[in-house]
Amino acid sequence: MNLAMDKAALEAFLARDFPQVGDDFVLEEVTPMVVRVRMPVAERHLRPGGTVSGPSMFALADVSIYLAILAMIGPKALAVTTNCSIDFMRKPAADRDLICDARLLKLGRVLAVGDAMIFSDGLEGAVARAGLTYSIPPT
Amino acid sequence: MNLAMDKAALEAFLARDFPQVGDDFVLEEVTPMVVRVRMPVAERHLRPGGTVSGPSMFALADVSIYLAILAMIGPKALAVTTNCSIDFMRKPAADRDLICDARLLKLGRVLAVGDAMIFSDGLEGAVARAGLTYSIPPT
Amino acid sequence: MNLAMDKAALEAFLARDFPQVGDDFVLEEVTPMVVRVRMPVAERHLRPGGTVSGPSMFALADVSIYLAILAMIGPKALAVTTNCSIDFMRKPAADRDLICDARLLKLGRVLAVGDAMIFSDGLEGAVARAGLTYSIPPT
Amino acid sequence: MNLAMDKAALEAFLARDFPQVGDDFVLEEVTPMVVRVRMPVAERHLRPGGTVSGPSMFALADVSIYLAILAMIGPKALAVTTNCSIDFMRKPAADRDLICDARLLKLGRVLAVGDAMIFSDGLEGAVARAGLTYSIPPT
């Protein structure tokens, strides 16, 4: 399997098409079916008690799988999330970035399924795990 | 069943403890085990193609179930989301508020389970459906 | 919306195409987008402690949504489950049938989404809630 | 981390406490937080079109995580499944056993979370992926 978009192409796509969120996410690694994305944790992601909000972690998992799909099929198709099931397992550290390791488990003609494991950078034990399904519209 | 917190008490709690997100959500109705929450859709919630982002809908479902729990158990306990499974079914309208109808299906000693149905205000057909589980720490 | 298959047609389909499980399920009501299915609880569904097994409840939710889809689109298409998220909320009674109220929330061209609420017959409080997605192959 | 129950102890437990399903599952490997379970596919697991039923795969994921938990905490506690989200990704082969690789991602005081990847023995590409949460009652 080859990449349809490499790291630089994905970064350019993110900056251009997702200006609202592009700053929230840093693409660290892209290989076929697998990406690693960093989310620099900022004040706006925090919740009372000094932890990162659930929606922030959801957003990180969602964008990571999305980028993993685009890396394989290119920017033409507009994939949309149809399902996400996420388990929040540990309280993320407020003073560390989040790291998301995402991989595609299936890349079909109409559906793609991936899972995402989220960590507080440098700490053991995933803070969240998510499974996501994307619908891939016909070209 | 009686409410431990009514609408005014929940609004005050939201404004004080969740200043980051309090403006995003308007509590419309509170009855035992059931709440309705409005999310005024703003530029920051939108995505390319003129639709509301998945993380925004996740956040709406999450806060709605959270408020439904607090309404029943009061502000003392710090409930945390442990699981969310969300189906995105239709593209939300970019120019309409989102409305979330949330209800608790179980309110146990350690776990609460609720479901949330999200609509574009005034349009038929839910745009998303979510089931959430919260862990309720011992008092 | 009209039914493509009514109760009698669905029963005949179930008996012919699902002889392994047909005896497990009794179709009680069929209306557009909504079905009610009864599962007579038998020894083989039980678990230690006198409760109905999780896989039995999963099977009930799965077949109920499947029948709700077939009722609308007819027996031609071979719909397959792509995702199920199920919350087990209360211990089912071992000596009562299970009742599943299932409804379709979306019936699209390629995906159908439904939810199912499962009760012990005659008891209040759902024992389980499930959301399911089916993929509908092109005809 | 040490095992509270090894392979032989888990097999004896399964045979004694789950006689209804014990024959369906063969424990292949047990290490801390990780188990591998084989399900010999038989006529009763099949569906039209020569594939293994969804409830059979659900049952395999469920028992695998359950055994992974018991391996760590011993047979005293009666853990119960509270949530399962499962993605069915590929059609399992009808003439091959299913293999489930299950691991615990969190083993807390009241909740355990695990994920399970299910394969048709010898074939590439998981047929299903599941995330499960178990509630662990106080001892």
TrEMBL record, chains A, B, C, D:
<dbReference type="InterPro" id="IPR003736">
    <property type="entry name" value="PAAI_dom"/>
</dbReference>
<feature type="domain" description="Thioesterase">
    <location>
        <begin position="49"/>
        <end position="122"/>
    </location>
</feature>
<dbReference type="InterPro" id="IPR029069">
    <property type="entry name" value="HotDog_dom_sf"/>
</dbReference>
<dbReference type="Pfam" id="PF03061">
    <property type="entry name" value="4HBT"/>
</dbReference>
<dbReference type="GO" id="GO:0016289">
    <property type="term" value="F:acyl-CoA hydrolase activity"/>
</dbReference>
<protein>
    <submittedName>
        <fullName>Uncharacterized protein (TIGR00369 family)</fullName>
    </submittedName>
</protein>
<dbReference type="InterPro" id="IPR006683">
    <property type="entry name" value="Thioestr_dom"/>
</dbReference>
<keyword id="KW-0378">Hydrolase</keyword>
